[in-house]
Design goal:
By secondary structure, this protein is of the alpha/beta class. The chain has one domain: Divalent-metal-dependent TIM barrel enzymes (TIM Barrel). Helices cover 42% and strands 17% of the residues. It has an eight-stranded parallel barrel with strand order 1-2-3-4-7-8-9-12. α7 runs parallel beside α8 and α8 runs parallel beside α9. The longest helix has 25 residues.
């Protein structure tokens, strides 16, 4: 099928995995049953041709995908990159992708900084960021999800808590929440707050998508959100607690970007996500 033909929209559901080039060869022989969808960064794939484009098309014809942006810099001072947004819209339309999320952070000014930096928790930034999210939604013609970010330096000048800040932006922008439970755990350990209390203060009723991942602990105790290790028990427990609030129907992606193990090991972690989803769905069904 030529790459320019448009695929019908597919909605992600269940448990999924980040789409990595290193895994393509193994997945061409068969995708494990536990993996129901894939996530990719559209900046890394939009406009690509050749073998990589054909390989991607092979999977988007068969599985739902989610776009998770890396460089829109929603909280940054530079003008919103509307050219990038239009490229993303065309890419999503071509591949039938129906969900786009981005980080609640900034990563560019005159040029890209290649890192995701925190933004101050102030009323001015709420207004600035919300306006940019609304504009992004207008261009993409869909509601997007914003992800609670990990950070290593607390932004100065806070006028509200981070949870209040996230809630204010979601309400003013009328967007959705992309909940990352590992980011909450990482920040809670690095800055000394209760992770569950923070999570329950978020507008979980607006959750459209969930991330879960592993991390690395430095010798001095600082936790780095690497997406390069297996998920630890406290993060699994946070995911289970999240499902108790939001139910098990929200698509959830395992992020694994470095130190990639075999596909069977990744499928096992995705399978654990699916089991927690099924358990939560059963419980919510009984309550209803």
């Amino acid at each position: 099928m030529p790459n320019h033909l448009i695929l019908p929209p597919r909605h992600a559901h269940g448990a999924g995995l980040g789409f990595r080039r290193e895994l393509i060869e193994a997945m061409m022989s068969g995708v494990p049953d536990s993996i129901r969808f894939f996530e990719l960064a559209p900046e890394n794939w939009a406009g690509m041709g050749g073998r990589s484009a054909r390989q991607l098309r092979h999977f988007t014809e068969r599985y739902p995908f989610v776009c998770h942006g890396l460089s829109l810099s929603l909280g940054g001072p530079a003008p919103l990159d509307e050219t990038l947004l239009r490229r993303i819209k065309a890419f999503m339309t071509e591949h039938g992708i129906r969900l786009y999320t981005e980080h609640l952070s900034w990563c560019a000014d005159d040029s890209h900084l290649y890192d995701l930096l925190p933004i101050p928790f102030t009323e001015e930034v709420v207004r600035w960021t919300s306006e940019r999210i609304r504009r992004a939604q207008d261009i993409l013609e869909m509601r997007i999800g914003i992800e609670n970010a990990s950070y290593y330096i607390a932004p100065p000048g806070a006028e509200m808590s981070e949870a209040e800040f996230i809630r204010a932006i979601i309400e003013e922008a009328d967007c959705a929440l992309h909940l990352d439970v590992n980011n909450i755990y990482v920040n809670s350990r690095n800055f000394g707050f209760d992770a569950l209390e923070f999570m329950h203060a978020l507008p979980l009723e607006r959750t459209c998508y969930v991330h879960v991942a592993g991390h690395y602990t430095e010798p001095d105790g600082l936790i780095i959100d690497t997406h390069g290790a297996e998920i630890i028990d406290p993060v699994w427990s946070m995911l289970e607690a999240a499902y108790q609030r939001i139910g098990g129907d929200v698509p959830t992606c395992l992020e694994r970007d470095f130190n990639l193990p075999g596909l069977d090991m990744l499928a096992a972690e995705v399978g654990q996500i699916a089991r927690l989803q099924a358990q939560a769905t059963l419980i919510h069904g009984k309550v209803a």
